[in-house]
Structures are given as structure tokens and as C-alpha cells.
Design brief:
The complex is a heterodimer of chains A (273) and B (287). Chain A has 273 residues and is mainly α. Chain A contains eleven helices and no strands. Chain A has a single domain, classed as MetI-like (MetI-like fold). Helices cover 36% and strands 22% of the residues of chain B. Chain B has nine helices and ten strands. Chain B is an alpha/beta fold and 287 residues long. Classes of the chains: A mainly alpha (273), B alpha/beta (287). The interface between A and B is large, with 31 and 42 residues.
């Protein structure tokens, strides 16, 4: 009873921003230094443009082709997002079913784990066949299939990693399965779900871009990278890669923000680890 | 309220047996033909060596485990019905608080399950916080509290809907001695005020004698009742009770019974392990 915990006074917004800046300053410095080193080395060693363009050239290309790159980026991002949504819904739904009917779960789990190890991108041409090469749904399908297994396996692990007493307590309140899922299993699974979603956000950008290499609309990041590279317009290829990376990071950060919002109660979010 | 003959017993066990299959295919008689009657208003402790099935017995009373044989009644009803009627509150060794809920919402959880209105709920939660002396902590999260405070939240939650019966599975087993004695005193105060019945599992002899009106001594493998000791110590119990000669005599008596029940295993492995979830789910699915 001696350990009385008192809430810390809330930090002022200004101080919080100050703290953030100080936290991020070293990372930002590393980025600037890396770009400068890249520029200097390419110039000093006389590296050919097709091997590695200078950052300044990539920046020029970004500005020059901004309309094309933004359109392509949005197109590809929409594919990634659509596939992510479908795969996540399916993965969470499957996990709920398998957690509820455990025997079904143990019958299907080995296959889910095996499917997770299959290089799913190899199915891209098949998906083009099924849904049409020009139809973005073919890319979404690839992304969805890539995303579904990690989401399902992680969520299932979360749903079933509830301590026995937590279930016993709910049963002592005459709770049925629905209440147990809603009030115990799903909240317990949230950290697992979000770590899966973070992985899935990255995978879905990869899936969308690589899926596009197998054909489809030309106003998309994959074809721009492929075609620019074959036409020796390397600065544009690199610019498109930068756009893909920025979108991937933004997607990831959006999940982090959603996680912090959904798990405000969690010690890691409250800043007490 | 004590020992009123007309009322149904708070707990009545007749010939209750339970067998567990252990890894490797062996079968262990966790409980063997247990007969026990707990009257309303009693404070009964179950004490015994590790693996004597005392935690299992508590779960049988709570209808969290169904025994393979025997009859279990709670408040004059089959245990299953009593659980569905929410006739008991339960407290475990770990506080088992839900991390995503604040202290107030943890205490209010059973009231939510009972469908109480928000206002009625928060009024009761305030009362309970007062009872366990945690006013001011309603918006804290469990991980911000010490072990003793967490356990008091668990007790407040179990009492929040005023169940007639309180089942406690080594609730103070993980706490330091000072905190444990303090919570012992608080529990007795709450018990006297609420007039509820308590079935309390412990492996501390002193705790069992200090708290209980009766101490049920069990033996291990198979889990049987060796004897029941009537604790005639005067109520209310106070710190001075612990230094009375009669207290020491009772402690000695219980200790001797324990050694008679299981001479070679008493200093054995740690307390009864909770069941793996797989077994619990199997039990759930049978319903």
C-alpha cells in the first residue's frame, strides 16, 4: 500500500513537441549525412548513372515527373490498400472462427502455416488470368493472399493466448462465448493483431509493386520502374522507388497511429515500459 | 445469520470425485469422494499439500470444472444453475485484472454482465472502492498498482454484485507477509459486514486458522478430507488473536493433521498449477 502511484502532470504540447524533436534529431541527421555521402561518393568515384544516380538527379526526376509519379503512386497504393483490407478482414475472420471452434483450428493450422511459406507472388500471373491483367483487382488479390496468413496466424495466437483464469472469471459471470470473445479474447489479441498489421502494411506495398511487374496498367509504380529501367531513364526508376518507399512508410506509420489509439491503455503507449 | 437450520447450505458436496489424465496417459485421482457442507455465513478454509486438489475443489464448487462423480449444490441449487444465476464471486491467486480496463471498469465488469445501468454501476463501484480503500484510483490501470492493491481490486470486483458466496483461491499467496496480514484483517472486516459465506483455499496454516470458522484439512493423491477443525477463536479476530495460546494450539493441530495426511509430500513442489487452457476448453465445449 506504500507504493502509491500518482498520475504525472500532463506534459504541455510545446514540451512534447520539443521532446519529439530531440528524439528524432539523431535519425534525421543520419539521413542527411547518408544523402550527402551518396552524392559526394557518386561524384568522386564517377559512378555511371545507370548504376546509381545521384540523389540530386533523383530529386530532379521527382519534380519533373511529379504528375505521373503521384498518379502512379496513388494507383498502386489503392491496390495495396484494397488488398490489405480484404486480406486483413479475411485473416481476422478466419482467426475468430478457428479460435471459436478449436478442433477446426487444429485441423487447418498446419496448412495455414504451410501456405504462409509459399512464395505467393508466384501466383501473380494466375491472378492476372483470373481477374484480368488490367483490372486492379488482380493485384489486390495477390496482396490479399500475401496478407491473409500472417494476419490470421498472429490474430489466432492472440485470441488463444488468454490466461485460463481470465476465461474462468468470465464463466463465473455466466458469460457465453460471445461475451468472452468481446470482452477478453479480442482485447487480448489487439497487440498481436497490430504487429501483424504492421508487417502486412509493408507486405502489401511489396505485393502490389511486384504484382504489377507481371503486367497491368502503365500508370502504376511497378511498370514505371520496369519500363524506365529498360529505357535507361534510371532517375525516373529511382524516383518511383522513392515514391513507393514513402508510401510504404506512410502506410506503416498510419498503422502505428491506429495502434496507439486502439491501445491507449497499454503500458508501452503510456510511455511506461 | 450463522447456522440457520432452515436455510439451504451455501455449499453442499456429496461424494465428489475428479480424475485427471496426466501427460503420458496416467490417471490421478484429484478428488476422492469428498463430502462437505458449508453453512451460510461460514468462513471455511481448505488447506492441504500441493496437489491435494483444493483448487480443483474450489473450481468444482464454482462449476468451472465438472466432477466425474458426486453431487454439488450451491445455495440449494445444482452448481451449474448457481453459476448461471451468478451466485458466487471468485478471486484467484493472481488478481486477473483486465489490463485494458481501468480499476473502476474492472470492478464494474460483473455489473456490466448483469446489465446494470451506468449510473447504478458507478455508484456501486464508488462504494466498493471505499470498501477496499482505493478511492482515488478509479482511473488507474492495473499495471500502475502494487500487487496488494491489485488484489484488493479483485476482491472489490468479486463483491461488487453482492454474491452470497465468495470463492477464494490462495488470494494472498503471492503477497509479502505484511501485506498479507493486512489484507487478512480487511477480508475479515468485509466478511463481517457483508454476512457472506467464504470458501478460502490456502497453504498457510496460520492464515487458515486466523481467518476461518472451520479449517478443512486435505491429503494428496487421492485428494481426501483428512479432518475438519472447528476454530473456536472469538470474533472479531484481531491482531492479538495471533498471539493467543489457543491460536498456537490450533495451528499445531492443523499442522499435525497435514503431516498425517501426507507425510512425504508436504514440502513438495509448488501449489496446484492452473489447468492448461486446452483442458478448460474441452470442459467448455462439453456444455
Amino acid at each position: 500500500m506504500s507504493a502509491i502511484v500518482q498520475a504525472l502532470p500532463p506534459e504541455t504540447l510545446r514540451r512534447r513537441i520539443g521532446h519529439r524533436l530531440r528524439d528524432w534529431a539523431p535519425a534525421a541527421l543520419v539521413l542527411v549525412m547518408a544523402l550527402v555521402a551518396w552524392e559526394v561518393l557518386v561524384r568522386a568515384l564517377g559512378i555511371q548513372r545507370f548504376l546509381l544516380p545521384k540523389p540530386s538527379e533523383i530529386l530532379d526526376a521527382l519534380v519533373r515527373d511529379r504528375k505521373l509519379l503521384v498518379d502512379a503512386g496513388l494507383f498502386t497504393f489503392r491496390e495495396a490498400l484494397g488488398g490489405f483490407a480484404m486480406g486483413t478482414l479475411a485473416g481476422v475472420g478466419l482467426a475468430l472462427v478457428l479460435a471459436r471452434w478449436r478442433r477446426l483450428g487444429s485441423a487447418l493450422m498446419p496448412y495455414a502455416i504451410a501456405a504462409n511459406a509459399v512464395p505467393i507472388i508466384a501466383f501473380a500471373p494466375i491472378m492476372n488470368n483470373w481477374f484480368g491483367t488490367l483490372n486492379p483487382v488482380s493485384k489486390m488479390a495477390i496482396v490479399a493472399v500475401i496478407v491473409v496468413f500472417p494476419v490470421m496466424i498472429n490474430t489466432l495466437r492472440g485470441l488463444t493466448s488468454v490466461r485460463p483464469e481470465q476465461i474462468e472469471l468470465m464463466r463465473s459471470y455466466a458469460a457465453g462465448q460471445r461475451a468472452i470473445f468481446r470482452r477478453v479474447r479480442i482485447p487480448t489479441a489487439l497487440p498481436y493483431l497490430f504487429s501483424a498489421l504492421k508487417v502486412a502494411s509493408v507486405l502489401s506495398m511489396i505485393g502490389a509493386v511486384v504484382g504489377e511487374y507481371f503486367g497491368g496498367s502503365t500508370t502504376a509504380l511497378g511498370p514505371i520502374i520496369r519500363n524506365s529501367a529498360s529505357l535507361f531513364v534510371f532517375d525516373r526508376a529511382w524516383a518511383a522507388i522513392v515514391v513507393a518507399s514513402v508510401l510504404g512508410v506512410a502506410f506503416y506509420l498510419a498503422i502505428v497511429v491506429a495502434e496507439r489509439f486502439a491501445m491507449r491503455w497499454h503500458p508501452s503507449v503510456r510511455g511506461h515500459t | 445469520m450463522n447456522g440457520n437450520g432452515d436455510r439451504a447450505p451455501a455449499v453442499s458436496l456429496r461424494g465428489v470425485s475428479q480424475v485427471f489424465t496426466v501427460r503420458g496417459g496416467g490417471r490421478v485421482a484429484a478428488l476422492d469422494e469428498i463430502d462437505l457442507r458449508v453453512e451460510p455465513g461460514e468462513f471455511v478454509s481448505l488447506i492441504g499439500p500441493s496437489g491435494c486438489g483444493k483448487s480443483t475443489l474450489l473450481r468444482v464448487i464454482g462449476d468451472l470444472i465438472r466432477p466425474i462423480g458426486g453431487e454439488v449444490q450451491v445455495n440449494g441449487k445444482p452448481a451449474h444453475q448457481a453459476r448461471l444465476d451468478r451466485d458466487y464471486g471468485i478471486v484467484f491467486q493472481d488478481a486477473v485484472l483486465y489490463d485494458w480496463r481501468t480499476v473502476a471498469r474492472n470492478i464494474g465488469l460483473p455489473l456490466e454482465m448483469l446489465g446494470w445501468e451506468r449510473e447504478r454501476r458507478s455508484a456501486r463501484v464508488r462504494e466498493m472502492l471505499e470498501l477496499v480503500e482505493l478511492t482515488g484510483f478509479e482511473q488507474h490501470h492495473p499495471w500502475q498498482l502494487s500487487g496488494g492493491m491489485q488484489q484488493r481490486v479483485a476482491i472489490a470486483r468479486a463483491l461488487s454484485f453482492s454474491p452470497a458466496l465468495l470463492l477464494m483461491d490462495e488470494p494472498f499467496g503471492a503477497l509479502d507477509e505484511m501485506t498479507r496480514e493486512r489484507l487478512n484483517n480487511e477480508l475479515l472486516r468485509i466478511w463481517e459486514r457483508s454476512k457472506s459465506t467464504i470458501v478460502f483455499v490456502t497453504h498457510s496454516i496460520a492464515e487458515a486458522v486466523f481467518l476461518s470458522t472451520r479449517v478443512v484439512v486435505m491429503s494428496a493423491r487421492p485428494g481426501r478430507i483428512v479432518d475438519v477443525v472447528d476454530v473456536g477463536l472469538p470474533q472479531p479476530r484481531m491482531a492479538e488473536t495471533r498471539v493467543e495460546p489457543r491460536f498456537f494450539e490450533l495451528v499445531k493441530e492443523v499442522r499435525e493433521l497435514l503431516h498425517r495426511g501426507a507425510p512425504e509430500v508436504f514440502e513438495g513442489p509448488p501449489a496446484d498449477q492452473p489447468l492448461p487452457e486446452a483442458e478448460l476448453l474441452a470442459a467448455e465445449e462439453e456444455r
